[in-house]
Amino acid sequence: MELTTIDITNATFKANPFPFYARLRTEAPVYPVTLKRFGRTWLVTRYNDVLEVLKDERFVKDPKNAMTPEQLKKAPRMPAMFKPFSKSLLSLDDPDHARLRVLVHKAFTPRRIEQMRDQVQVVADELLEGIAPRGQMDLIADYALPLPLTMIARILGIPSSDNNKFHRWTKTFLSAASNPNPLVIVPAMMSFMRYLRKQIKERQAHPQDDLITALVQAREGNDMFNEDEVVSMIFLLLSAGHETTVNLIGSGMLALMEHPDQMQKLRNAPELSKSAIEELVRFVCPAETATERYAREDVTIAGTTIPRGEMVLAVVGSANRDPNYFDNPDTIDIARTNNRHLAFGQGIHYCLGAPLARLEGQIAIPTLLQRLPNLHLARKPEDLRWRGGMILRGLEALPVTF
């Protein structure tokens, strides 16, 4: 296969991108591809080079801090209604990024996440209570999706009476990566933003014990979030935080069913759940690449120069299979100890939702194995449908029997 023929956003490619990345690590560790919306984009694939991109200040998140005036004229324009998302942690550089990160840490604390442990267990048990008598399910739609979605709604403080429309909006956004239909997405986005602004105003008037209140009240000296920043933070938690957990549970379970010895090992020793989740995150890579970065100047990596202003994707899915850093990287070992994977990133943009994703994975997958001891795939792995898209890697559906 010619390297130049690859479309990394294609759903078929997503099913097994790892042989292509193995070739890149050997033949072209910094490699240009063309993406429809962004033009030429550079894939960085070796572990040490990926780590460099994630931590090097010459690679920035905001294209305005990297591009020449001529490049900015040609760059894709953001519709006005999406402008609040330009204030997201994912799209800012320091000092703006540092300011928001300090504030969000005051709201999204490890203690708040750990308090969710019992609730995650309750939600997992409730879902499986309803599913178990059926003997079959779509593991994505019936379990991997509703579990973190229910949890993020509870963490935010969405009233239970609004759960149905909250779930409907969120599913519409999640479908956008593989089926970007503006006629569906734009009305849902506008309705959801109106809803969030109403919730924010209610918390300002009547504080509650939830994350929206915590974001509204978070302050550092005289500094606070403005309304657009709270909206963008909630969207970040829903997209970057929530969908990666769906992919971790879904793709992680597929990987275990394809490696029955490891599945049985985890079923017999649930105390391995922490190392098992780290290994599944490394192996399936729910986010195949880090979010986009831009070269602030010409930067040479592995003998290849990335020109100023051009987009770079640090391929963590490739770094996590680099044989120079992992023994038998294409094999699952749920008891792996030397596992310094990059699935949650590194540097100042390290994943804010990592503690929540770990917690949900550590409960969702072992609970599934314990409650459904005869879990099997309902179709061949090669017949499963994967979602297309640039950053994330996950299944459309995962039919199972038990």
UniProtKB/TrEMBL annotation:
Domain of life of the source: Bacteria
The keyword Iron is annotated on this UniProt entry: yes
InterPro entries assigned to the protein according to its UniProt record, in alphabetical order: Cyt_P450, Cyt_P450_B, Cyt_P450_CS, Cyt_P450_sf
Protein keywords: Heme, Iron, Metal-binding, Monooxygenase, Oxidoreductase
A Pfam family of this chain: p450
Gene3D superfamilies tied to this protein: Cytochrome P450 (1.10.630.10)
Protein name per the record: Polyketide biosynthesis cytochrome P450 PksS
Organism of origin: Tengunoibacter tsumagoiensis
Gene that encodes the chain: pksS
